[in-house]
Amino acid sequence: MLPVAGAERFRSRGRHRPGGGRSPPRPAPLSAMAGPWRGLRRARGWAALAGLRARTDKFGGVSVDLGELRGSPRLERAAFGRWLRESVSQWRDEGRIAVWLRVPILQSSLVAVAASQGFAFHHAEQGSSTLTLWLGEGPSRLPGFATHQLGVAGAVLDESTGKVLVVQDRNKTINAWKFPGGLSNPGEDIGDTAVREVFEETGIKSEFKSILSIRQQHKHPGAFGKSDMYIICRMEPASFRISFCQHECLRCEWMDLEQLARTENTTPITSNVAKLLLFGYREGFDRIDITMREFPAVYTGLFYKLYHRELPEPYRNMT
Ligand SMILES: NC(=O)C1=CN([C@@H]2O[C@H](COP(=O)(O)OP(=O)(O)OC[C@H]3O[C@@H](n4cnc5c(N)ncnc54)[C@H](O)[C@@H]3O)[C@@H](O)[C@H]2O)C=CC1
Ligand SMILES: [Mg+2]
């Protein structure tokens, strides 16, 4: 069994002791136990299991990282299965609401053992998977993993000529004109994705000016069935000579913005945003722009970017 390492121990419902009182006694060390642990003495890796730490979170869940077994002999599945069953039983008694189990990819045979005890995948990354088991009352309230992917395109408009940069994708069945763009990298700002993707696909350097539109599409086949957010940004060109990526694009050109707004050889998204951009080009970009401001995040010490329509000065400085 696995004693919990968090500062606070959760009391199970019905075991509340008035006045707080002492913590329940810590379980005896694994080696001293009888019953299900006896067989573990000889099982490979059992000693390492005893050293694992279970960390509590502020919601009352408990996390165990099997990566802490690094350098230990490979665990026998049976030993792990018995250890997990006993530990879960103890956490249940302690009133924990959930278990988070991180499994390094090379220990993946233990995933099946955990799954046979009710655990399910929460998410997987390159080197590990994380499984969860809900112990609380009623249906699980654990948040799911990422729900969306983010694509960003750049509508690069040369204001001196009224031409906009467009491409036709090589791998798409319909070769419609669209703005160059692609998927955001983890941790990448929207504007930075637009600059990077425009440059990678067309060779054109550009600067982020504003967000023009946001499209949300559920069950997107290109997002492995997840939802897809597609943001189109207004960009200002910093170079003009096209050198497009032959792998990704079939064609690339500077096209008259009004022609793009009128052509049928495009998607509804590109067509509508071309019309919006044409309106802004003629009537002022302040009519269409969703601009960005940066602020310090209060609790984390990080910064975030807030995107919204222009706020008039008197409102901006209200206290
Ligand atoms: N105008 C529109 O209306 C369009 C919007 N989009 C949006 O743009 C974003 C994605 O842009 P992309 O240009 O597609 O991304 P991207 O520019 O990041 O390119 C993705 C790359 O991955 C490759 N790829 C994708 N799936 C693959 C697979 N299964 N195996 C091997 N290679 C694979 C593609 O060939 C491409 O080279 C999404 O948000 C999408 O919804 C994409 C196309 C058209
Ligand atoms: Mg692309």
Automatic annotation (TrEMBL):
Keywords: Cytoplasm, Hydrolase, Mitochondrion, Nucleus. Its main location: cytoplasm. Coiled coil: none annotated. It is an enzyme of class 3 (hydrolase). One of its GO terms (cellular component) is nucleus. Its EC number is 3.6.1.-. Pfam families: NUDIX, Nudix_hydro. Residues 147-279 form the Nudix hydrolase domain. The keyword Zinc does not apply. It is found in: Cytoplasm; Nucleus; Mitochondrion. Residues 1-34 are annotated as: Disordered. GO terms for molecular function: ADP-ribose diphosphatase activity; NAD binding; NADH pyrophosphatase activity. Belongs to the Nudix hydrolase family. Monomer and homodimer. May contribute to the regulation of cell proliferation. This is Nucleoside diphosphate-linked moiety X motif 6. It comes from Junco hyemalis.
